[in-house]
Amino acid sequence: MAEFVRDIIRERTLAGLAAARARGRVGGRPRKLSQKQVEMAKNLMKDISIPVAEICKTLGVSRATLYRYINL
Predict the structure, then answer these.
(1) How many Å apart are CA 40 and CA 12, to the nearest integer?
(2) Residue 72 has pLDDT above 80, yes or no
(3) What range does the domain containing 49 cover?
(4) CA-CA distance, 17 to 11, in Å (whole number)?
(5) How far apart are CA 56 and CA 36, in angstroms?
(6) What is the mean pLDDT of residues 21-34?
(7) Whole-prediction pTM value?
(8) Within 13 Å, how many C-alpha atoms sit on residue 41's CB side?
(9) Residue 25: which region, alpha, beta or left (left: phi > 0; alpha: psi -120 to 50)?
(10) CA–CA separation, 59 vs 7, rounded Å?
(11) Residue spans of alpha helices (H) in 1-72
């Protein structure tokens, strides 16, 4: 009985997510940097005279976040 109830809940959840996607809703955490900011960061990283800490401060992200976006 519990498995049946769980299957029903799962079906309803998936149907709800599909309906939200059809309305244009996207789930998950919003991206910290836009594509334009990522391109700017990549260009700034090419210039070795600019410290990584300065790039991070300019973009308002941590060093780990910057490297995560650069390596994508």
Answers:
(1) 42
(2) no
(3) 2-70
(4) 10
(5) 15
(6) 91
(7) 0.63
(8) 27
(9) beta
(10) 45
(11) 2-22, 35-46, 52-59, 63-70
Number of CB atoms found within 10 A of residue 38's CB: 17
Whether residue 66 contacts residue 56, with contact meaning beta carbons closer than 8 Å, is answered with: yes
Q: Give, in degrees to the nearest 5, the angle at Cα 66 between 48 and 27.
A: 155
Domain count across the chain? 1
For residues 33 and 41, is the Cβ–Cβ distance under 8 A? Answer: yes
The dihedral through the CA atoms of 60, 61, 66, 68 has a sign that is negative
In single-letter form, the type of residue at position 47 comes to D
| Cβ(61)–Cβ(45) below 8 Å | no
Reported residue count of the chain is 72
Average confidence (pLDDT) over 30-44: 93
Report phi then psi at 7, rounded to 5: -65, -40
Rounded Cα distance between 54 and 43, Å, is 13
